[in-house]
Design goal:
By secondary structure, the protein is mostly helical. The protein is built from 13 helices and no strands. The chain has helices at 3-64, 70-80, 85-122, 128-153, 157-212, 226-257, 260-270, 273-293, 298-325, 327-332, 342-367, 371-396, 398-434.
Length: 435
C-alpha cells in the first residue's frame, strides 16, 4: 500500500470513528445544552454563577482525582493490546487502582470540606449541598474518563456514543425541574444522576470491548507498570494542573471583581463553547491511536496532523460563525436577565476554532511521547490566561474573561502545532539521512 493510500485509509477510519462517536455525542450535547437553557430561566444570572463556581471547583478537584488518566489507556492499549495483551491488562489494572484512590480521596474531601469551600468561594454556606453533591458527580466523571480511555483505545466508538447520548438526554429531562425546585443544588444533583446513568451504559460497553480484545483488568503485577504513569499520566496530570487552576482563577477573578451575576452571564455563554469544539475534540481523542500508529513515519504523521487540524478547525469555524452572528437571539432564550451575555457568547464562539486546533496539536504531542512538552505549553497558556484575566476582567467583566480566553487559546494553538510540526520535520530529515 502506498503512503497516500495508507493515509487515506487512516483518515477514512478517523472520519468513521469520529462520526460514530459524534452521533450520540451530538445528541448528548444538545440535550445538555437545552437542559441548561431551561434551567437558567429558573436559576437567573446569580444562580448560574453559583453553578459556575461549583463546576470550576469540580474541574480543579477532577484533575487531582485523576480524571485525565483515561488518556493513558487511550495511548497504551493500541500500543500493546496485540503485541503484549498481558501488559495492556496490567496497565488497565494500575490505572483503575490509581483513579479509584484519587477519586475516592477527593470526593471524601469535598463532602467534608463543603461548608468551608462554600464560605470561601461565595461567602455563604448555602452552596455547601451543591459542593457535597458534586462529590458524586466527581466520582461519575472519573469513571467516565476511564471508560472513554478504554473505548477509544479499543476503538469501541459506538459504546462511547451511547454513553454520551444517555448523559445528555438524562440532563435534558432532569435539569429543568431540579433547578426549579432546588436551585443550583438541584442542578448539580441532576448532573450527577445523569453522569451515573451514562456510567452504567459505558460500563457495559467497556465489558464488551475488553472481551472482544481478550483483555481484562489485572491487578496482580500492576505495580510493575508504574513507570508508564511517569511516561504518560504524570505529564498529562501536570498539564491539567496547569489548566484547571488557571480556569479556576479566572472564575474567582470574575466572581470577585465583577460579581456572581457576571459569572452567571459567562457560564451561560460558555455552555455553547463546549458543543462547538466537541467534534474537533472528539477527532483528537479518536485520532490518538492513529497518531501513535503513524509515529514511525514522520512524513505520514505530519500529513495526518495537517489534515486533521484543518478538518477539526473547519468543523468548529462554520458553526462558530453562525453562533456569533446569532448570539443575540440565542441568548434571548435564557430570559431578559441574560441579555448582557450576547457579546460574551460571540467571543467564546470565535474562540472555538483556536481551541480545536490547540486540542489537535496537544493530541499530536501526546502521540509523539512528548507529554512534557505538552505540559510546558499548557503552563505557558495558563500563565497567559490568568495575566489577561487580571488585566481585562476589571474593566470589562464577563466580556473581558471571554477575550482573555480567545487570546490565550490563539497562542496555545500556534505554539502546540508549531512544536509538533517542527518535530516531524526534524525527524523526517533524520530518517532521510539514515536512508
Amino acid at each position: 500500500m502506498t503512503d497516500r493510500s495508507s493515509l487515506r485509509t487512516t483518515l477514512a477510519g478517523l472520519i468513521r470513528g469520529t462520526g460514530t462517536a459524534a452521533l450520540g455525542g451530538a445528541l448528548g450535547r444538545l440535550g445538555m445544552l437545552l437542559g441548561l437553557i431551561f434551567a437558567a430561566r429558573s436559576l437567573g444570572p446569580e444562580g448560574m454563577g453559583h453553578l459556575g463556581l461549583v463546576q470550576a471547583t469540580l474541574a480543579m478537584a477532577g484533575i487531582l482525582a485523576g480524571i485525565g488518566l483515561g488518556g493513558t489507556l487511550s495511548r497504551a492499549l493500541p500500543r500493546w493490546k496485540d503485541t503484549d495483551p498481558a501488559r495492556a491488562s496490567r496497565i488497565t489494572g494500575l490505572v483503575v487502582l490509581v483513579a479509584a484512590f484519587g477519586a475516592g480521596v477527593l470526593a471524601t474531601s469535598l463532602v467534608i470540606g463543603a461548608p468551608y469551600l462554600a464560605a470561601a468561594l461565595a461567602a455563604e454556606t448555602a452552596l455547601a449541598p451543591a459542593i457535597a453533591l458534586g462529590a458524586v458527580l466527581l466520582l461519575g466523571q472519573a469513571c467516565r474518563g476511564l471508560q472513554d480511555g478504554v473505548l477509544v483505545g479499543l476503538r469501541a466508538h459506538g459504546s462511547m456514543s451511547a454513553a454520551r447520548a444517555t448523559e445528555g438526554l438524562a440532563a435534558l429531562l432532569l435539569l429543568p425541574p431540579a433547578a426549579a425546585m432546588a436551585g443550583a443544588n438541584g442542578a448539580v444533583g441532576a448532573l450527577a444522576l445523569a453522569v451515573g446513568l451514562a456510567v452504567l451504559v459505558g460500563g457495559a460497553g467497556w465489558h464488551r470491548a475488553m472481551s472482544r480484545a481478550d483483555l481484562r483488568i489485572t491487578f496482580r503485577g500492576a505495580w510493575e507498570e508504574v513507570p508508564i504513569l511517569w511516561r504518560y499520566a504524570l505529564p498529562s496530570l501536570g498539564a491539567g494542573l496547569a489548566a484547571a487552576p488557571a480556569l479556576f482563577a479566572m472564575t474567582l477573578i470574575l466572581s470577585h471583581e465583577a460579581g456572581l451575576a457576571e459569572l452567571g452571564l459567562y457560564t451561560a455563554a460558555y455552555q455553547w463553547h463546549g458543543p462547538l469544539v466537541y467534534v474537533p475534540a472528539l477527532l483528537g481523542l479518536v485520532g490518538i491511536p492513529a497518531f501513535v500508529e503513524s509515529g514511525g513515519d514522520p512524513v505520514r504523521f505530519r500529513r495526518l496532523l495537517l489534515w486533521t487540524t484543518a478538518g477539526g478547525a473547519g468543523a468548529a469555524l462554520v458553526p462558530a460563525l453562525g453562533v456569533a452572528l446569532l448570539s443575540g437571539p440565542i441568548i434571548g432564550h435564557y430570559g431578559p436577565a441574560f441579555a448582557g451575555a450576547a457579546p460574551v457568547l460571540a467571543v467564546l464562539a470565535l474562540a472555538a476554532p483556536l481551541h480545536a486546533a490547540s486540542k489537535l496539536g496537544g493530541a499530536a504531542l501526546l502521540a509523539q511521547d512528548r507529554a512534557w512538552a505538552h505540559f510546558g505549553l499548557a503552563t505557558g497558556w495558563a500563565c497567559l490566561l490568568v495575566a489577561l484575566c487580571g488585566f481585562l476582567i476589571p474593566p470589562f467583566g464577563a466580556l473581558g474573561a471571554a477575550l482573555a480566553f480567545l487570546a490565550s487559546y490563539g497562542g496555545l494553538a500556534a505554539a502546540s502545532l508549531t512544536v509538533a510540526l517542527t518535530w516531524t520535520i526534524g525527524a523526517g530529515r533524520a530518517v532521510g539521512a539514515a536512508g
